[in-house]
Amino acid sequence: MSGELAPGEKLKLADLQKRYDLGLSPIREALLQLSGEGLVNNEGQRGFRVAPLSRADLDDLMSARIAIESMLFEDAIAHGDDNWGAAVTSAWYKLSKAPLPNSPSEHDGADYWEAAHREFHRALLSAARSKWLLRINEQLVNHSERYRRIRLVHPLSQRQLAQDVISEHEAIMKAALSGQASKAVALLKLHLMRTTEVLAERFASDH
């Protein structure tokens, strides 16, 4: 998910054993589980590879995420209480203070920002009642993170990116906490669609 293992890269069992200091059985079990989650491709006798990235997959992935996350967000706003509001506010504060990485080598910075970003979006949806939709959305978020990492470490327009991230998420939070469900959901959709467009541009430039 972090991109440390490149999309399409062959996953050699011996290398993974050395990397994680584990036996063959847990490595195989982990690869099969990751294959079931769509993060690794099981090629049978030819072994395993990191799942590839593509524009078509990105469009499909984000279309599904926009549909499901919008439903969850609307339900969360309708049923959110003071604890939900406090969780959203806290997650927003942490995100607003998280610095964006400035180069592809800043793995720790990317990890920290991604964790804060994910926590904020998870807090927005935390009052939603459908556990199944929340599980499905979490899987979609996992896959979209692979593409978002391209945006995080891309050297272009970091200052503008930071300003966009702050303003977009703040507007979503304010609309949600003020009970303006239609506006909040519309802003979330615009945010995710804009993210898709930016990711597609950066994905194309890196490939």
The portion of residues forming beta strands comes to under 5%
Structural class: mainly alpha
User: Which whole number gives the mean pLDDT?
Assistant: 88
Q: How many distinct beta strands?
A: 3
Count the helices. How many?
8
Could you give the distance between the termini?
18 Å
Short account of what is shown:
This protein has helices at residues 13-20, 24-36, 55-79, 82-97, 107-125, 131-153, 158-177, 181-206; strands spanning 10-11, 40-42, 48-50. A three-stranded antiparallel beta sheet has the order 1-3-2.
Which key phrases capture this entry?
mainly alpha; 207 residues
Describe this structure in words.
The longest helix is centred in the C-terminal third of the chain and has 26 residues, at 181-206. The chain has 207 residues and is mainly alpha-helical. It contains eight helices and three strands; from the N terminus they run E-H-H-E-E-H-H-H-H-H-H. A three-stranded antiparallel β-sheet has the order 1-3-2. The protein has helices at 13-20, 24-36, 55-79, 82-97, 107-125, 131-153, 158-177, 181-206; strands at 10-11, 40-42, 48-50.
Task: Indicate the topology.
Blueprint: E1 10-11, H1 13-20, H2 24-36, E2 40-42, E3 48-50, H3 55-79, H4 82-97, H5 107-125, H6 131-153, H7 158-177, H8 181-206
Antiparallel strand pairs: 1-3, 2-3
Helix pairs in contact: 3-6, 3-8, 4-5, 4-7, 5-6, 6-8, 7-8
